[in-house]
Amino acid sequence: MAHSIEKIAVIGAGTMGSGIAQVAAVAGFQVQLFDLNPEVLKKGMTGIQKNLLKAVELGKLSAENAEATLARIAPADDLRQLVCDVVIEAIIEKTEAKQNVFQSLAQINPPTTIFASNTSSIPITRIARGIPHPERVVGMHFFNPAHLMKLVEVISGEATSAEVAQTVAELSTQMGKTPVMAADAPGFIVNRVARHFYLESLKCLEERVADFATIDALMENSGFKMGPFKLQDLIGMDINFSVTSSMFDSFHGESRFRPSRLQEMKVEGGFLGKKTGKGWYSYE
Ligand SMILES: NC(=O)c1ccc[n+]([C@@H]2O[C@H](COP(=O)([O-])OP(=O)(O)OC[C@H]3O[C@@H](n4cnc5c(N)ncnc54)[C@H](O)[C@@H]3O)[C@@H](O)[C@H]2O)c1
C-alpha cells in the first residue's frame, strides 16, 4: 500500500458505521468509533459484540480472535481526539455535516490522513470542496449490512489523487471486500440502478396496484433476496429518502428520480424502519 495504515477512525456508529468498524477491526486495524449520540455508540458496540459472538458460534472466528478484535475497537467521545491514518465517515446523508467532520479532523490530522466518505449519493467532488488537501478525499461506499456485503465502490472526485483511490481499494481488499472503481456520477453505480427498485414499488403502492407486503412477496418470489419495502426498513427510511432527494437534485429534477411523498411521510412520522422499531413493518 502506498500509505501505511494502522489506525482508522469511523465517524458515525449507526447502521453502517458499526459494521464498518467491525470489518476494520477483524482485518487487524486499530479502530476508533465515534458518534454524536452516545446511545447510538453504545448500541453500535453491543451490535459488534453480538456479531462477533455469532461468528464464533458459526465457527468463522475463534473466541480468542473475537476478543482481540473487540479490544481493537475503542469507542471515542471526542471528535477532536481522533488522529489516524484513515477516516471513514458514515454520518447522516447531508453535505454540510460531512464537510464539517472533515474540516474539524483536518485541523488535527496530518495532510496524509485519508478522508473517505461512505456517502450513498453525494458527489465526492462536492464533499471535498474547501477541505484542506482535497486530493485525500475519496468515496468508500460499503453496502448494508457492512460486515456481510462484499462490494465496496471506490469513488474518485475531481481532486482525488490516483494514489489515494488505489490505497482505499487495497484497504477494502484487506478488509475482505471486493472494491470496484466508480466515477463520481450521481448515485455512483449501484444506487443509481437500484433507485428505481424503491421508487417504482412506491409508485405501485401510491397507485394501489398492490399492498407493500404483496409487492415484497412477489419480488422475493421472483428472485430478489429482499423486497423493496423490507429493504427500505433495513437501510433506514430517512437515509433512503435523503439518497433519493440528493439524486433528484443531482439529476436537475429529472422526474424518474422524484422522491415519494408516501416515504416522506414515514420519515416525518419517525417510522424509520428497523432502527426505530417501525417502518413499513413492525419490529417491536
Ligand atoms: N443505511 C444504508 O443501507 C447505507 C448503505 C450504504 C451507505 N450508507 C450511507 O452511510 C451513511 C450513514 O448511514 P447510516 O444508515 O449508517 O445512518 P444512521 O442514521 O444509521 O447513522 C448515522 C449516525 O451518524 C450520527 N451522526 C450524525 N451527525 C454526526 C456528526 N456530525 N458526527 C458524528 N456522528 C454523527 C448519528 O447520531 C447517527 O447515529 C450515509 O451517508 C448513508 O447514505 C447507508
The main sheet comes to: 8 strands, mixed
Q: Structural class of the secondary structure composition?
A: alpha/beta
CATH superfamily of the largest domain: NAD(P)-binding Rossmann-like Domain
Mean of the pLDDT scores?
96
Work out the count of structural domains: 2
Order of strands side by side in the largest beta sheet? 3-2-1-4-5-6-7-8
Rg value: 19 Å
**Uncertain runs with pLDDT below 50, 5 residues or more?**
none
CATH topology of the largest domain: Rossmann fold
Helix/strand order: EHEHHEEHEHEEHEHHHHH
Strand content: 5-15%
CATH architecture of the largest domain: 3-Layer(aba) Sandwich
Helix proportion: 40-55%
Features:
8-stranded mixed β-sheet; alpha/beta; Rossmann fold; binds nicotinamide-adenine-dinucleotide; 284 residues; 11 helices
List the helices and strands and how they pair.
Blueprint: E1 7-11, H1 15-26, E2 30-34, H2 38-57, H3 63-71, E3 73-76, E4 86-89, H4 95-108, E5 114-117, H5 124-128, E6 137-142, E7 151-156, H6 162-174, E8 178-182, H7 190-206, H8 212-221, H9 228-235, H10 237-250, H11 261-268
Parallel strand pairs: 1-2, 1-4, 2-3, 4-5, 5-6, 7-8
Antiparallel strand pairs: 6-7
Helix pairs in contact: 1-2, 2-3
This protein binds nicotinamide-adenine-dinucleotide.
The site of nicotinamide-adenine-dinucleotide has 30 residues, from helix 1, helix 4, strand 6 and helix 10.
